[in-house]
Write a structure and sequence with these properties.
Helices cover about 50% and strands about 10% of the residues. The chain has about 375 residues and is of the alpha+beta class. The protein has 3 domains: about 60 residues, no CATH class; about 110 residues, no CATH class; about 110 residues. The chain has a 6-stranded antiparallel beta sheet with strand order 1-3-2-4-6-5. InterPro entries: DUF4190, Septum_form.
Protein backbone atom coordinates (compact mmCIF):
# COMPACT_ATOMS: atom_id res chain seq x y z
CA UNK A 1 0.00 0.00 0.00
CA UNK A 2 1.37 3.30 -1.00
CA UNK A 3 0.90 6.49 0.82
CA UNK A 4 1.16 10.11 0.01
CA UNK A 5 1.53 13.25 1.93
CA UNK A 6 -1.41 15.64 2.24
CA UNK A 7 0.33 18.03 -0.07
CA UNK A 8 0.63 15.40 -2.84
CA UNK A 9 4.35 15.13 -2.50
CA UNK A 10 5.85 11.76 -3.22
CA UNK A 11 5.99 9.44 -0.23
CA UNK A 12 9.21 9.48 1.72
CA UNK A 13 11.76 6.95 0.64
CA UNK A 14 13.07 4.18 2.94
CA UNK A 15 16.51 5.09 4.29
CA UNK A 16 19.54 3.35 2.98
CA UNK A 17 20.76 0.42 5.09
CA UNK A 18 23.43 1.44 7.60
CA UNK A 19 27.00 1.15 6.48
CA UNK A 20 29.05 -1.14 8.74
CA UNK A 21 32.03 0.53 10.37
CA UNK A 22 35.40 -0.18 8.88
CA UNK A 23 37.51 -2.92 10.44
CA UNK A 24 39.22 -1.80 13.65
CA UNK A 25 36.80 1.06 14.24
CA UNK A 26 35.55 1.59 17.82
CA UNK A 27 31.94 0.54 18.27
CA UNK A 28 29.71 3.01 20.19
CA UNK A 29 29.03 1.79 23.77
CA UNK A 30 25.53 0.57 24.66
CA UNK A 31 23.59 2.21 27.50
CA UNK A 32 23.22 0.35 30.82
CA UNK A 33 19.61 -0.66 31.41
CA UNK A 34 18.01 1.34 34.23
CA UNK A 35 15.75 -1.52 35.35
CA UNK A 36 18.85 -3.69 35.86
CA UNK A 37 20.30 -1.08 38.16
CA UNK A 38 16.99 -0.76 40.02
CA UNK A 39 16.82 -4.55 40.41
CA UNK A 40 20.29 -4.67 41.98
CA UNK A 41 19.59 -1.76 44.34
CA UNK A 42 16.27 -3.28 45.41
CA UNK A 43 17.94 -6.61 46.02
CA UNK A 44 20.70 -5.02 48.11
CA UNK A 45 18.51 -2.94 50.41
CA UNK A 46 15.66 -5.47 50.67
CA UNK A 47 12.96 -2.82 50.37
CA UNK A 48 10.34 -5.12 48.83
CA UNK A 49 12.09 -8.47 48.21
CA UNK A 50 9.90 -9.72 45.25
CA UNK A 51 10.23 -6.37 43.47
CA UNK A 52 13.88 -7.06 42.61
CA UNK A 53 12.85 -10.27 40.83
CA UNK A 54 10.23 -8.48 38.76
CA UNK A 55 12.51 -5.60 37.82
CA UNK A 56 15.29 -8.03 36.90
CA UNK A 57 13.03 -10.05 34.59
CA UNK A 58 11.85 -6.94 32.77
CA UNK A 59 15.46 -5.73 32.53
CA UNK A 60 16.64 -8.98 30.86
CA UNK A 61 13.89 -8.71 28.26
CA UNK A 62 14.78 -5.16 27.34
CA UNK A 63 18.51 -5.87 27.34
CA UNK A 64 18.05 -8.71 24.85
CA UNK A 65 15.75 -6.64 22.65
CA UNK A 66 17.72 -3.37 22.62
CA UNK A 67 21.21 -4.65 23.10
CA UNK A 68 21.74 -2.68 26.28
CA UNK A 69 24.22 -3.47 28.99
CA UNK A 70 23.40 -4.63 32.54
CA UNK A 71 22.63 -8.32 32.24
CA UNK A 72 24.96 -9.12 35.15
CA UNK A 73 23.36 -6.41 37.30
CA UNK A 74 19.88 -7.74 36.59
CA UNK A 75 20.87 -11.32 37.38
CA UNK A 76 22.60 -10.25 40.61
CA UNK A 77 19.56 -8.21 41.62
CA UNK A 78 17.28 -11.17 40.94
CA UNK A 79 19.47 -13.51 43.03
CA UNK A 80 19.63 -11.08 45.96
CA UNK A 81 15.89 -10.50 45.79
CA UNK A 82 15.24 -14.23 45.72
CA UNK A 83 17.41 -14.67 48.83
CA UNK A 84 15.61 -11.79 50.57
CA UNK A 85 12.22 -13.25 49.65
CA UNK A 86 13.20 -16.66 51.09
CA UNK A 87 14.50 -15.04 54.28
CA UNK A 88 11.29 -13.06 54.74
CA UNK A 89 9.18 -16.17 54.17
CA UNK A 90 11.29 -18.10 56.69
CA UNK A 91 11.09 -15.28 59.23
CA UNK A 92 7.31 -15.14 59.00
CA UNK A 93 6.98 -18.91 59.24
CA UNK A 94 9.24 -19.27 62.29
CA UNK A 95 8.16 -16.10 64.10
CA UNK A 96 11.67 -14.67 64.01
CA UNK A 97 10.39 -11.35 62.71
CA UNK A 98 7.89 -11.15 65.51
CA UNK A 99 10.65 -11.71 68.06
CA UNK A 100 12.83 -9.13 66.37
CA UNK A 101 10.01 -6.59 66.39
CA UNK A 102 9.39 -7.32 70.07
CA UNK A 103 13.07 -6.68 70.73
CA UNK A 104 12.94 -3.39 68.88
CA UNK A 105 9.81 -2.43 70.78
CA UNK A 106 11.47 -3.23 74.12
CA UNK A 107 14.48 -1.11 73.23
CA UNK A 108 12.18 1.71 72.19
CA UNK A 109 10.25 1.50 75.45
CA UNK A 110 13.50 1.37 77.41
CA UNK A 111 14.75 4.54 75.76
CA UNK A 112 11.39 6.27 76.11
CA UNK A 113 11.15 5.45 79.81
CA UNK A 114 14.67 6.61 80.58
CA UNK A 115 14.58 10.23 81.55
CA UNK A 116 16.59 12.84 83.36
CA UNK A 117 16.39 12.90 87.14
CA UNK A 118 15.75 16.63 86.76
CA UNK A 119 12.48 15.82 84.95
CA UNK A 120 10.85 13.94 87.84
CA UNK A 121 7.39 15.18 88.76
CA UNK A 122 4.98 14.63 91.64
CA UNK A 123 3.37 11.21 91.36
CA UNK A 124 6.14 9.68 89.21
CA UNK A 125 7.41 6.23 90.14
CA UNK A 126 10.89 5.27 89.03
CA UNK A 127 13.90 2.98 89.35
CA UNK A 128 17.56 3.87 89.43
CA UNK A 129 20.37 1.69 88.00
CA UNK A 130 21.83 0.72 91.38
CA UNK A 131 18.93 1.42 93.71
CA UNK A 132 18.20 4.75 95.35
CA UNK A 133 20.09 4.06 98.55
CA UNK A 134 23.30 3.11 96.71
CA UNK A 135 23.53 6.15 94.44
CA UNK A 136 24.92 9.39 95.78
CA UNK A 137 24.42 11.23 92.50
CA UNK A 138 21.80 10.38 89.89
CA UNK A 139 21.46 11.83 86.42
CA UNK A 140 19.07 9.40 84.75
CA UNK A 141 16.25 7.27 86.09
CA UNK A 142 13.81 4.84 84.55
CA UNK A 143 10.16 5.85 84.85
CA UNK A 144 7.83 2.92 85.54
CA UNK A 145 4.17 2.45 86.28
CA UNK A 146 3.47 2.66 90.00
CA UNK A 147 1.62 -0.67 89.81
CA UNK A 148 5.00 -2.30 89.07
CA UNK A 149 7.66 -2.82 91.76
CA UNK A 150 9.72 0.36 91.94
CA UNK A 151 12.47 2.04 93.94
CA UNK A 152 10.76 5.34 94.64
CA UNK A 153 7.70 7.56 94.22
CA UNK A 154 7.95 11.34 94.00
CA UNK A 155 5.89 13.22 96.59
CA UNK A 156 6.74 16.75 95.42
CA UNK A 157 9.56 19.23 94.98
CA UNK A 158 10.56 22.74 95.92
CA UNK A 159 13.21 25.27 94.94
CA UNK A 160 15.95 26.63 97.14
CA UNK A 161 16.54 30.37 97.14
CA UNK A 162 19.70 32.42 96.92
CA UNK A 163 22.67 32.59 94.59
CA UNK A 164 25.37 31.39 96.99
CA UNK A 165 25.89 27.66 97.47
CA UNK A 166 24.50 26.99 100.98
CA UNK A 167 26.34 23.72 101.55
CA UNK A 168 24.98 20.20 101.97
CA UNK A 169 24.24 20.39 105.75
CA UNK A 170 22.05 23.46 105.30
CA UNK A 171 20.23 21.94 102.31
CA UNK A 172 19.62 18.70 104.23
CA UNK A 173 18.21 20.60 107.19
CA UNK A 174 15.66 22.33 104.94
CA UNK A 175 14.92 19.23 102.86
CA UNK A 176 14.25 16.94 105.82
CA UNK A 177 11.58 19.23 107.21
CA UNK A 178 9.88 20.12 103.95
CA UNK A 179 10.05 16.64 102.41
CA UNK A 180 8.54 15.08 105.54
CA UNK A 181 5.64 17.55 105.33
CA UNK A 182 5.22 16.85 101.61
CA UNK A 183 5.12 13.12 102.31
CA UNK A 184 2.38 13.57 104.90
CA UNK A 185 0.32 15.69 102.51
CA UNK A 186 0.90 13.28 99.61
CA UNK A 187 0.02 10.11 101.55
CA UNK A 188 -2.68 11.26 103.95
CA UNK A 189 -3.69 7.67 104.61
CA UNK A 190 -0.45 7.01 106.46
CA UNK A 191 -1.57 3.51 107.43
CA UNK A 192 -1.35 2.54 103.75
CA UNK A 193 2.34 3.50 103.55
CA UNK A 194 4.44 0.29 103.86
CA UNK A 195 6.97 -0.01 106.64
CA UNK A 196 9.88 -0.13 104.18
CA UNK A 197 8.98 3.27 102.69
CA UNK A 198 11.26 6.06 103.88
CA UNK A 199 11.27 9.76 103.18
CA UNK A 200 14.10 10.61 100.78
CA UNK A 201 15.19 13.55 98.68
CA UNK A 202 17.50 14.55 95.83
CA UNK A 203 19.20 17.93 96.15
CA UNK A 204 21.55 19.97 93.95
CA UNK A 205 25.26 19.29 94.01
CA UNK A 206 27.74 22.11 94.22
CA UNK A 207 28.55 21.56 90.54
CA UNK A 208 24.92 21.53 89.34
CA UNK A 209 24.21 24.60 91.48
CA UNK A 210 26.84 26.63 89.68
CA UNK A 211 26.83 25.17 86.16
CA UNK A 212 23.12 24.73 85.41
CA UNK A 213 21.62 26.87 88.19
CA UNK A 214 19.98 23.81 89.75
CA UNK A 215 17.92 24.81 92.79
CA UNK A 216 15.38 21.96 92.94
CA UNK A 217 14.97 19.51 95.81
CA UNK A 218 12.90 16.46 94.82
CA UNK A 219 11.16 14.60 97.65
CA UNK A 220 10.14 10.96 97.46
CA UNK A 221 9.17 7.80 99.26
CA UNK A 222 11.88 5.21 98.66
CA UNK A 223 12.20 1.54 99.52
CA UNK A 224 14.65 1.09 102.38
CA UNK A 225 14.95 -2.55 101.31
CA UNK A 226 13.70 -4.30 98.21
CA UNK A 227 11.03 -2.47 96.23
CA UNK A 228 7.81 -0.56 96.82
CA UNK A 229 5.18 -3.02 95.63
CA UNK A 230 1.84 -1.69 96.87
CA UNK A 231 1.08 0.55 93.88
CA UNK A 232 0.91 4.30 94.23
CA UNK A 233 1.03 5.60 97.78
CA UNK A 234 -0.82 8.76 96.82
CA UNK A 235 -3.87 9.55 98.94
CA UNK A 236 -4.75 13.24 98.79
CA UNK A 237 -7.37 15.54 97.30
CA UNK A 238 -6.83 13.94 93.89
CA UNK A 239 -7.64 10.39 95.03
CA UNK A 240 -9.82 10.60 98.16
CA UNK A 241 -13.56 11.16 98.33
CA UNK A 242 -15.08 13.87 100.55
CA UNK A 243 -15.70 11.59 103.56
CA UNK A 244 -12.20 10.13 103.47
CA UNK A 245 -10.62 13.54 103.13
CA UNK A 246 -12.46 15.05 106.12
CA UNK A 247 -11.71 12.00 108.25
CA UNK A 248 -7.96 11.98 107.56
CA UNK A 249 -7.57 15.74 107.93
CA UNK A 250 -9.23 15.49 111.34
CA UNK A 251 -7.50 12.34 112.64
CA UNK A 252 -3.96 12.63 111.31
CA UNK A 253 -2.95 15.43 113.71
CA UNK A 254 -4.10 13.34 116.69
CA UNK A 255 -1.71 10.56 115.69
CA UNK A 256 1.14 12.99 115.12
CA UNK A 257 0.77 14.80 118.43
CA UNK A 258 1.42 11.66 120.47
CA UNK A 259 4.73 11.31 118.70
CA UNK A 260 5.76 14.65 120.20
CA UNK A 261 5.70 13.47 123.80
CA UNK A 262 8.69 14.89 125.73
CA UNK A 263 11.56 12.51 126.39
CA UNK A 264 11.78 13.67 130.02
CA UNK A 265 8.98 12.50 132.29
CA UNK A 266 6.89 14.88 134.46
CA UNK A 267 9.04 14.22 137.52
CA UNK A 268 11.99 15.70 135.65
CA UNK A 269 10.31 18.31 133.45
CA UNK A 270 6.72 19.00 134.45
CA UNK A 271 6.38 22.15 132.36
CA UNK A 272 7.22 20.41 129.08
CA UNK A 273 4.75 17.61 129.79
CA UNK A 274 1.98 19.96 130.82
CA UNK A 275 2.50 21.99 127.68
CA UNK A 276 2.37 18.84 125.56
CA UNK A 277 -0.81 17.65 127.32
CA UNK A 278 -2.41 20.96 126.45
CA UNK A 279 -1.51 20.42 122.80
CA UNK A 280 -3.01 16.92 122.93
CA UNK A 281 -6.25 18.29 124.40
CA UNK A 282 -6.56 20.92 121.68
CA UNK A 283 -5.83 18.43 118.92
CA UNK A 284 -8.49 16.02 120.18
CA UNK A 285 -11.01 18.86 120.51
CA UNK A 286 -10.34 20.08 116.97
CA UNK A 287 -10.61 16.57 115.56
CA UNK A 288 -13.96 15.93 117.23
CA UNK A 289 -15.34 19.27 116.04
CA UNK A 290 -14.24 18.65 112.44
CA UNK A 291 -15.81 15.18 112.38
CA UNK A 292 -19.07 16.41 113.91
CA UNK A 293 -19.32 19.25 111.40
CA UNK A 294 -19.32 16.86 108.44
CA UNK A 295 -22.21 14.61 107.46
CA UNK A 296 -20.77 11.20 106.69
CA UNK A 297 -22.62 8.81 104.42
CA UNK A 298 -23.62 5.17 104.74
CA UNK A 299 -22.28 2.89 107.48
CA UNK A 300 -19.42 5.27 108.24
CA UNK A 301 -21.84 7.69 109.92
CA UNK A 302 -22.31 5.58 113.07
CA UNK A 303 -18.67 4.48 113.21
CA UNK A 304 -17.49 8.09 113.10
CA UNK A 305 -20.03 9.17 115.72
CA UNK A 306 -18.73 6.45 118.08
CA UNK A 307 -15.19 7.69 117.41
CA UNK A 308 -16.12 11.26 118.29
CA UNK A 309 -17.49 10.13 121.66
CA UNK A 310 -14.24 8.27 122.41
CA UNK A 311 -12.17 11.31 121.48
CA UNK A 312 -14.22 13.52 123.76
CA UNK A 313 -13.89 11.12 126.69
CA UNK A 314 -10.11 11.00 126.28
CA UNK A 315 -9.95 14.77 125.89
CA UNK A 316 -11.38 15.27 129.41
CA UNK A 317 -8.41 13.49 130.99
CA UNK A 318 -5.87 15.42 128.91
CA UNK A 319 -7.54 18.67 129.90
CA UNK A 320 -6.88 17.85 133.55
CA UNK A 321 -3.33 16.70 132.79
CA UNK A 322 -2.69 20.02 131.06
CA UNK A 323 -3.73 21.84 134.24
CA UNK A 324 -1.64 19.72 136.61
CA UNK A 325 0.54 21.66 139.05
CA UNK A 326 2.58 18.67 140.17
CA UNK A 327 3.83 15.40 138.72
CA UNK A 328 1.46 13.21 140.75
CA UNK A 329 -1.60 15.00 139.38
CA UNK A 330 -0.22 14.71 135.87
CA UNK A 331 0.33 10.96 136.26
CA UNK A 332 -3.17 10.61 137.69
CA UNK A 333 -4.69 11.62 134.33
CA UNK A 334 -1.93 10.51 131.96
CA UNK A 335 -2.68 6.79 131.83
CA UNK A 336 -6.50 7.18 131.86
CA UNK A 337 -6.09 9.65 129.02
CA UNK A 338 -4.25 7.05 126.95
CA UNK A 339 -6.67 4.27 127.93
CA UNK A 340 -9.68 6.34 126.88
CA UNK A 341 -8.35 6.91 123.36
CA UNK A 342 -10.26 5.03 120.65
CA UNK A 343 -8.72 1.68 119.79
CA UNK A 344 -6.38 2.08 116.80
CA UNK A 345 -7.63 5.63 116.35
CA UNK A 346 -10.87 4.63 114.67
CA UNK A 347 -10.20 1.32 112.93
CA UNK A 348 -13.92 0.62 112.50
CA UNK A 349 -14.49 4.04 110.98
CA UNK A 350 -11.54 3.46 108.66
CA UNK A 351 -13.00 0.18 107.49
CA UNK A 352 -16.38 1.82 106.83
CA UNK A 353 -14.64 4.55 104.84
CA UNK A 354 -12.59 1.99 102.86
CA UNK A 355 -9.30 3.28 104.19
CA UNK A 356 -6.40 1.09 105.24
CA UNK A 357 -6.96 -0.66 108.57
CA UNK A 358 -3.41 -1.75 109.30
CA UNK A 359 -1.74 0.49 111.89
CA UNK A 360 1.86 1.43 111.10
CA UNK A 361 4.02 -1.55 112.05
CA UNK A 362 0.92 -3.75 112.29
CA UNK A 363 0.46 -7.21 110.82
CA UNK A 364 -3.15 -7.14 109.65
CA UNK A 365 -3.80 -6.69 105.95
CA UNK A 366 -5.32 -3.39 104.96
CA UNK A 367 -8.75 -3.06 103.46
CA UNK A 368 -7.95 0.00 101.42
CA UNK A 369 -9.85 0.56 98.18
Amino acid sequence: MSSSSPQGWPPPQQPYPPVPPPPGAVHPSANTNGLAIASLVTGLVCLVPPLGLILGAFALGRIKKKGERGKGLAVAGMILSLISTLLVATGIATGAFSKALDGVREVKEEVASSSSAFALRKGDCFNTPNGVQNEEEVERVKSVKCAQPHDAEVTGSFKLTGDTWPGVPEIEKIAEERCFAMGEAYAMDAWAVPDNAWTFYYHPTKESWSTIKDRTVTCAFVAEKGKLTTGSLRSDETTLDADQLVFLKALNPTESVFGEEPEEDPDTNLDANVKWAGKVEKTLRDAGAALEAHTFSGPSQKAVADLVRDLDEARKHWTKAAKATDADTFWEHYEPGYDALPADFGKEARAALKLDTTPPGGTESGSGS
